[in-house]
Task: structure prediction
Amino acid sequence: MDGGPESRARAAGRERRLLSGLAGRRRGPLARHLLLLPTGVWTAIFFLGPLVLLGLYSFGRENLITLNVSLNWTLGNYQELGNPIYRSTLLRSLELSAETTIACAILGFPLAYLISRCRGRLQWLLLGAVIVPFWTSFLVRTYSWVNILQTFGPLDSLARGLGLTRSHINLLYTPTAVGIGIVYSYLPLMILPIYVALERVDDGLLEAAADLGAGGFRAFLRVVLPLGTPGLIAGMIIVGVPAAGEFVIPEILGGGKTLMIGNIVANQFLEVSNYPFGAALAMSLMVVLMIAVFSLRRIQSRLQI
Amino acid sequence: MPETTKEGVTRGGRVLSRRRLLLEGAGAAAGFAVLGPAIEGCGAASKSTSGGSSSGTAVMENYPNWMGSNVVQQFERQHPHARIKQVSTAPTSESAIVPLLKSGTYDFGLGDTTVGGQAKEIGILQPVDLARIPNIKYVSDYFRKNFPYGIPTDYGKVGIGYRPDLIKEKITSWHDLWRLAPKFSGKIVFIDLDRDSMGSALKYLGYSTNTHDPAQLQACKKALLKIKPHLQAFLGTNVGRGLIDGSTLIAMDWDFDVALNKQKQPKIEWVNPSEGMTAYLEGWMAVKGTKYLPLIEEFMNFALAPKQYGSFVNTTGSAYVEPAARQYIQKALATSPIIAPDPAVLRLVEYETYLGNALPMWESTWQEIKA
Result:
């Protein structure tokens, strides 16, 4: 049906509005990118910039007497990493990181599952119990373990009071104390991403599994665990990466008898003032951790989760 | 490692209880109210003798709370155009102070003889004119001679604290400590600082605490690795705290820390090991290029006035270098045989000096010991 001039004018107006809208949409991404600019600039200056600087420093040399750094593109700092002390320290740190990450996963997954199945006020209460300790200083929380684990401390008194042991328990300044400290500090970082993943699991799926004859444990293995795996992998990355470079907890609870790679990095920057070697150590640790992170991401992709 | 813990303010393991700090702060405040005019008079005298310009803001690198109560405030009150801005950087070791002084941020700072030696060698030290610091006369010649970088403020020895009531043996030497280590395995702590632990091991072996000899350092490493399995911990803070409840029986420790713990547990005993002791001597030094040298010198002079210096000792609990201030120092500190020893004890002391080219060798040896 052919419209009159009025109808054609209306159609032309609609077309203009449509084109105008499309143009607006085309400008949209640009506006959004502009909004990202402050974050990008911030990241470039305060994240990428220092990283590049760290990389450059790692090829430099420092005169430990004058404290002057010269960038002479030497691989000497990286060659020095071949020293058995640094190799064994790196391995020890990775081993500790793996052990504490696994411990956090074993403790964190059931807790996260429990929280995700609770509803209402109880769920908020449990989430609060996980999050509230973060409001206290990390150092204060770590130092509190000194009192708990030391001889004549509460743990020692409790064990003796219950008749579990006659001699005094002295866990302080042992590898066990370091493990306890790291697991305690990082456990919430494991629980929260698993909780987020499991919270989305539809109760109907568990009912369906039960209808199909799966018992509680089998339903957990076949339904809950696979659906919680994205959170588990995220938690492993969030816990494992900082745990590998941890140096405060080993220093306070380990009694300084065993060096971790984080201690050596901190030592190079804060005590020896050998920034180039400290930078080489930090870059090497970063590469090792990036390989671990990408491997986990690859597993995640293969599982299509 | 200077830091604030729940036990109190610590510096290099030197603990000041919060209660003590508060009490002393309150005491100093009350004292100031009563003695204000006298202190004003003292300051005025110092001003007239030192002369020169004393305006502007001088930035000082300092340990947390390592200053007499109200000393800065009183100085600033007398010099309305002058300001001393203290920046507490909490370095983990003395060697970390040199880069701070080199950074150009500070006009003067606190450091020990190792810092002074390195600062002098790399040309960042500004000599002060002692003629403009007449109160230096109150400092013992002995300490002035050993600290030629500025004004000495305090010192400390590394010896042994132990519980004779629990180990039932007498300790008089480093040899005794090494000998008893297997018997009291897991009940011994050492200081987590290379200069102090390695320095003491070198004394045990009969060497200088400032050795440059690789063979002696290897022997030192061997001695420390031999005793390491028996150590409870290497501690940088609260080193001798375990002596109080007996969870630690023997501690390589600083004199002031043992003196402090002895106030809580009188059964703790201090030993000046017969082989000798490594010791630090600290003081204030000006940084080359400062625009405020007259102000710094005037402040140094003010802080060395016996009353002000007494306040410094009462706040920090450190061993003192100014006998004239004794009347202003709390009796427990002034008469302590641990931190105010007989002069004969000082003959056993060897101060840590700047290691120069031997520094990397010391660093790597310490890492091999700790790894």
About this structure: The interface with chain A takes residues 3, 5-6, 91-93, 95-96, 98-99, 102, 118, 121-122, 186, 189, 192, 228, 231-236, 242, 245-247, 356-357, 359-360, 363, 367-368, 370-371 of chain B (CB under 8 Å). The radius of gyration of chain B is 20 Å. Chain B has two domains: 4-154+281-339, 156-278+356-370. Residues 58 and 292 of chain B are 6 Å apart (CA to CA).
